[in-house]
Amino acid sequence: MEMEGYGYGRGRAGGNGGGRGGRGGAQGGRSRGRGGYGGRGRENQQPQYHQQPPQFNQQRPHPPPQFNQQRPQQPPQFQQQRPQSQQQRPQQQFRQPSMVQGHQWGSGPAIEGRSGPNWRPANAAAGVGSSHGQQQVTSGNYAAKLQQSTETRADRGLVPKMQSLKLSEGASQSSVAGELVPIKRPDSGGLEKIRTVNILVNHFPVSFNAESVIRHYDIEVKPEVASPSGRPVKVTKTNLSLVMEKLFSDNSDFPLEMTAFDGEKNIFSAVELPTGTFTVELSPEEDVRCHTYKFSVTLVNELKLHKLKDYLTGNLLQLPREVLQGMDVVMKENPRRHMVSIGKSFHSIDPKQSPLYYGLVASEGFQHSLKPTSQGLALCLDYSVLAVRKRIPVIHFLREHIELTVFNSDSFRRRWKDIEHALIGLKVTVTHRRTKQKYVVSGLTDRNACDISFTVEDPNSQLPPRSVRLLDYFREKYPGIEIKYEDIPCLSLGKGRMANYVPLELCVLVEGQRLHKEELDRDSALLLKNMSLAHPGDRKTKICGMLQQDHGPSGGEISKNFGIDVTMNMTRVRGRVMEPPKLKLRSSPDKVNAINVDKDSCQWNLVNKLVVEGTTLKHWAVLDLSSFERRPADRLNKDFIPKLVARCNKLGLQMDYPLFTEQARMSVLASAESLTPVLEKVQRQAWKACQNNLQLLLCVMSSKDAGYMYIKWVSETKIGLVTQCCLSKMANKGQDQYLANLGMKINAKLGGSNAELYNQLPLFNEDAGHVMLIGADVNHPRPRDYLSPSIAAVVASMNWPAANKYIPRISPQGHCVEQIENFGHICLELIECYEKMNGVKPHKLVIFRDGVSEGQFDMVLNTELLGLKKVFQAIDYRPTITLIVAQKRHQTRLFPETQRDGGRNGNIPPGTVVDTTIVHPSEYDFYLCSHYGSIGTSKPTHYHVLWDEHNFSSDSVQKFIYDLCFTFARCCKPVSLAPPVYYADLLAYRGRLHYDAQSEKHSSSGNSSSSLALSSTSTSTSDMNALHSGIQDLMYFI
After folding, report:
1. Distance (Å, rounded) from C-alpha 1026 to C-alpha 1035?
2. CA 610/CA 606 separation, integer angstroms
3. CB 702 within 8 A of CB 634
4. Cis peptide before 801 (omega within 30 of 0)
5. Where is the region Disordered (predicted)?
6. Structural domain includes residue 818
């Protein structure tokens, strides 16, 4: 949990190379790989009133802040089609932004038969990027197709997982008639810069024989003898590997070095394999239930590599994704055979390990994938550090992990929930028999080992079935094994009728199981982060070494047998460094100054400076949860509040002393039930002091605590109160920088404006009309949570042209569903808020979408964007729209080639943009490193412009996003991600906190034996978006 106010300028700008922290499973819950191929005082006495204080759930009035008014302006007409630069690009024709007759979504002239820059007519020839044909599409006919397409996609949800690539050779991968596709790059890259830098990228060029054919086979493995019930028997991955190894070793027609296996049911081969069904006999020494299997092989496709070459050279319109997937499996085959696969990364069987805690180690490895780029095919490989489990007995694990010291019936009954939470979903092996079989823990048995009995049938059917105690069964079948802990439950391994009951002492955790950052304690998470944040020079050396090792993706002979070869040198590119913008701050209450940022770090400070728009804070209070701590160092100093008030006033806020201070113990954070009376008391005092018009509650905690989520949930959904949390040990230091950071967050939460751009944002001139920026993201449940909803979050700016005040909306949706349901209606609600505050709807929208992979672009365009347009169409509202996807979960890293090309810490300078060589061959994408990398290796954000009705050039959109990164409200430096999606990310995580708090409340009041995964079933998602009206239009989440 990242505590609010903890450290000056915290945020993505400070975290480099380690990915996004604190994302509810973000990163744990999200699966965002490249889709399609492989796969966060004193009391003021007030006179006594006769009115009764309000009830706890009563909503207090809290008007939203007013924003700058502007006169309504009509959006300009579309510009005509831009000329396409031919430099280093294949000749292509690009579609002019336009509308279908009768269904104009933009403000440009309607062109019959074409709709928007991305629309492809139904009979467009493959490989032709132009829509200048004479096809006639009537408005009604197209509307019907549009509605049918949207409804179909809504029904099927996200792109389905490909179980077997049964694609015919002649099948076209072009989109369905009338669907949208990502736009093409409008030029050959940007030109704007203050200097250029030479960069090395962890993209290694890949050459391949275009005449080669990779044969794709589907395999099916099943026991020779069917199960008595007649139901299909699922063969485990362990047994599947045993069967394959046996077949390939016994049959010379299956050459091991000429094939690659994806671990599921797909084999890719460089030579023709025999098809049909084969009988495989496993050795009697193998401890498996069945020793004879039927292995079926079916040819489903021949992947011709010339299609990929045609795509890379611009002669094929659609990416042959099945070819790329097959080649990606080939490149993973060598490390798969010699290393341990953990998630999407590979780790050495005997890795360099650093101990963490609870039987965990930090293991170094690598992650790689193939990418189509402007220079051709490239292998992207990056260094990876994961927290993984060691092989440890379950009994020892419980002793260390949850400090369970006594193993008897009473201790298990008292701590049932903790034990199940620790064990459910983990993989174990058993020690009472020789086997490689891995089992998944599904829970604890409801009876102790000594009380469990089951029926055993005579295998020869000579004797009647008999009832046997579990303990007796183990003594008879496995002589010499004595069960020590008889009066505790067993582990339930597997599901349903196939579940096995095994005593805990006979189970061992499988080595190499990954733990996500959110599951680690503070010290272990810090150690893992430090290992992940390798210096750029060290990271570059590690990457090159991992590629060249014998067990790497290009080691051995497998890839060479497929005609694939990897260059051992990183790709060299030229990056452009853009000029940072001037900022607007005040030097006095009535004087605004232009501020130049530091040339190297692009940071600025607030010494002798005031925020642009400071709020007035007269009604606020303090909840001191540190006052009862034993150690004086953990209690809040009395001089903190005067220092904070003085610093905030010096910053430009009009801040009075708090009305009152309420004291409580940290123990009240144990549950929502214990915290609620404390906050109700605060509310009653607020009623006496200011008629319940409390603007802010400052919560001081002696340490980080999981009860933070209860503070946020109760105050933001039940009371309607903005809170700001801080740690007493940080507050007691009284550092000016820390106090200023708190003041900035408080100001932004209450509707103020900290820093603004001195000049208007690029892309839009003064006559552009009103522009709204929208950010959207989805937070998914953490690992091992199989029922909780995903949380969709959308934010929108309300004050053009400053565009730094946002209104949030949260919406729960289906479990692990990335598509934002009702995206159009959420955006329409935000647009109505804009109209209420500014007197006019925005004429232009720039939408930033976070968290989607390339394989989900189709969903974003044809479900979310088309759904949005359909909602707007219904009310005759037609703003022009640009849609940009921002990706942080990728493996591309940029390294300065020489010391002169980098900054003081060895990273590329902020403002570096790369839009050649390593980008997509034709689509509109670029890498931007907008932040200063103080530690670790800077990770650029990968932006994809999917849809553009504003005719933006590469220079204009890159400068627009870079300048926007300087407007983030809670730090004095540019951040690594465009603020609209940064805010959406924070908002989605806040929604996850609300849900977790609500789930824990229901769980603690219900059956104590319910597990985390199942407790969510008792929690209704209908209250998730029931944010208190008093704060729903404030930036309470930053």
Report:
1. 16
2. 7
3. yes
4. yes
5. 1-138
6. yes
Domain extent for 149: 1-32+64-74+92-124+133-184+770-890+942-1024+1034-1038
Strands (E), 282-410: 292-304, 340-342, 345-347, 353-355, 360-373, 376-389
Q: What interhelical angle do 866-874 and 139-156 show, nearest 10?
A: 130
In this structure, are residues 578 and 599 in contact, taking their beta carbons and an 8 Å threshold? no
Shared domain for 379 and 464, answered yes or no, is no
Report which secondary-structure segment, H or E, holds 867.
helix 866-874
Cα angle for residues 372, 374, 379 (degrees, 5° grid): 40
Question: Which structure tokens are listed for 307?
Answer: 């299609």
- Going from the C-alpha of 562 to that of each of 268, 824, 927, the distances in angstroms are 10, 47, 31
What is the per-residue pLDDT for 289? 65
Inside any domain, residue 28: yes
Token couple for 117: 């820059």
pTM of the model: 0.80
| Contact between residue 258 and residue 270 where contact means Cβ atoms under 8 Å apart | yes
Q: Which of 429, 425, 393 is nearest to 28 (CA)?
A: 425
Any domain includes 975: yes
Residues 552 and 660 in one domain: no
SS3 label, residue 136:
coil
* The token pair that represents 747 in the structure block: 């100001």
Question: The CATH number of the domain where 669 resides is what?
Answer: 3.40.50.2300
- Strand-pair partners of 261: 267
| Cα 130 from chain centroid (whole Å) | 35
CA distances from 193 to 84, 574, 736, 960 (A): 21, 12, 35, 14
For residues 307 and 301, give the distance between their C-alpha atoms in angstroms, rounded to a whole number: 14
Are 635 and 712 within one domain?
Answer: yes
Whether 641 and 620 have beta carbons less than 8 Å apart is answered as: no
Note the Cα 778 to chain centre separation in Å. Answer: 8
In a shared domain, residues 874 and 973: yes
- What's the total number of domains in the chain? 4
Centroid of chain to Cα 184: 26
Q: Please check whether residues 558 and 589 belong to one and the same domain.
A: no
CA-closest candidate to residue 376, choices 321, 319, 309, 305: 309
Neighbours of 498 (CB within 10 A): 11
Give me 711's structure tokens: 């503070």
CA distance 920 to 915: 9
The answer to whether the CB of 25 falls within 8 A of the CB of 782 is yes
- Bridge partners, residue 429, by sequence: 508
Within this chain, do residues 610 and 705 fall inside the same structural domain, yes or no? yes
Positions of the chain with pLDDT lower than 70, given as ranges:
1-178, 227-231, 284-289, 349-352, 496-498, 1001-1025
Per-position DSSP letters for 983-1035, written without gaps between them: HHHHHHHHHHHHHHHHHHHHHHHS-TT--HHHHGGGS-GGGTT---TTTTTS-
Cβ neighbours of residue 700 closer than 8 Å, sequence gap 6 or more: 622, 623, 624, 625, 626, 636, 725, 726, 727, 728, 731
Long-range contacts of 552-557 (CB under 8 A, 24+ apart): 552/334, 552/335, 552/366, 553/331, 553/332, 553/334, 553/335, 553/368, 553/379, 553/381, 554/331, 554/334, 554/379, 555/334, 555/335, 556/257, 556/334, 557/257
CB 577 within 8 A of CB 195: yes
| Residue 286 included in any domain | yes
**Same structural domain for residues 777 and 879?**
yes
Which of 682, 715, 749 is at the close of a domain?
Answer: 749
CB atoms within 10 A of CB 1007: 11
- Any alpha helices (H) in 234-320, and if so which ranges? 237-250, 306-312
The secondary structure of residue 193, as a DSSP letter, is -
Ramachandran category for residue 11: left, alpha or beta (phi over 0 → left; psi -120 to 50 → alpha): left
Q: Using alpha carbons only, what angle is made at residue 114 by residues 110 and 116, rounded to the nearest 5 degrees?
A: 80
Q: Are residues 562 and 592 in the same domain?
A: no
